[in-house]
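Q: Convert this sequence to structure tokens.
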Amino acid sequence: MTDIKTQAQGINPNVQPRDIKALVAETHNIYETINIISKRANQLANDIKIELHDKLDEFASHSDTIEEVHENKEQIEISKFYEKLPNPVLIAVNEFINNGIDFHYKNTNPDQD
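A:
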């Protein structure tokens, strides 16, 4: 799995209008398309959250006093980077448009293989 930095490169962080017919061309159902994109966006949001917490945990101080709060410039830069990332939904829509999301349907009928 690639990291978020490479996935978000070149994606406009602003919301843009999309052609619904082009989005639905592969699945032929708008609800399935939205479901696929939303599940991928949830995965991305979870990955971003885990990645950010892992990076910020490196700077965590485990002192019991509140007076010893330090301002770390690297920690601030990391936080700013993640704030500027496009919304996970925008990344997921971009992946879907560029055929970057692999999806399949479960076989609900046990007689068919």
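The two ends are 29 Å apart (CA to CA).
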